[in-house]
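Lecture notes, unit on binding sites. The following record was shown on slide 14. It pairs a sequence with 1,6-di-O-phosphono-beta-D-fructofuranose.
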Amino acid sequence: MTTSYGTIGTRLHRHLFETERRYPHATGELSALLSQLALAGKRIARVLSRAGLAEVLGPSGVTDVEKERLQKLDTLANEIFLEAFAYGQLVPTVVTEHMDLPARLPENETVAASAGKYVVFVDPLDGASNLDINGAVGSIFSVRRIGGSGPILSEAELLARISQQQVVAGYFVYGPATMLVYTAGPKSGVQGFTLDPGIGEFLLSHSDVRIPRRGPYYACNEGGLAAWPEAPRRFVESLRAPDPSRGRPLATRYSGALVVDVHRILLRGGVFLSPGADVEPDGKLRLMYEAAPLAAVVEAAGGMAIDGTRRIVSIFPEENQQRTPLYIGSREDVEELEREIAAGG
Ligand code: FBP
């Protein structure tokens, strides 16, 4: 089947080449960046496929900026992403969940390179609690352009110079198959690629993905429901109440890995909920490398993502590790929740 984004089975490299030709002013930089990201995804997929045999499971003994115990694979995935960008004069700075400060990549940090290049925000391994039980996990990435000039020397300077718009956003899902899903903005839609490990290539498998306007699933950690704010808690109870006219009750699908749950909802429809609650009033999920990139993908597919009152993609961060509540998925489902919250629940 051929679409305007390529024929199913098209290699990622050819898809990028042909997409680039549609933009006369394209420099090829985003294609090169996506190729670097794809390499990181392939390397992580290979490590995960042998994790139980290669002594890389379990805690690393290191804690991250949020004092969360890192798994050995968290640290390995973090290093794989940094290595992927270590050349090419495109990415002088990388912000990840597992480092206190942004990583500066000196090879790319000439004064000229800092201006107009890219900062990558990445969750190298999302859903780490699934690793030891061979559950699906993922990586999430968000690319923003750098303004100004000169090396970025502080978090405040980084946040002052990055673009509000994500130039590329997406994720890998490491499941029965490894997938790369990305968007280069609303006009470019959402494209999905499946890794053929036999040839080491990502092949186009989901062209121009559109999320259903309403869906059969909801995903949340119901264990915490009693501590939720009133409106989202009441909304979940309405999803569970029989209402054949709206296909309810919905089915619960919650894997413990954000990116896996959102990928299901992107393809089948529904809503994912992660509110702020008493223990984490600002929410558990990170804005810059979890909520914002997934919101960019879901919105480019016709869906919606809010923190309760604001579109996630419109929130400008005050710090790299900022957390946020996240309600994301089918437009009609999220709009219904937004109305519940606005009604003062
Ligand atoms: P990590 O990135 O540290 O794995 O934390 C994020 C996450 O694992 C999400 O992937 C997942 O949706 C969520 O935490 C699970 O949280 P909870 O255990 O509260 O349901």
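Take-home: The CA atoms of residues 96 and 345 lie 34 Å apart.
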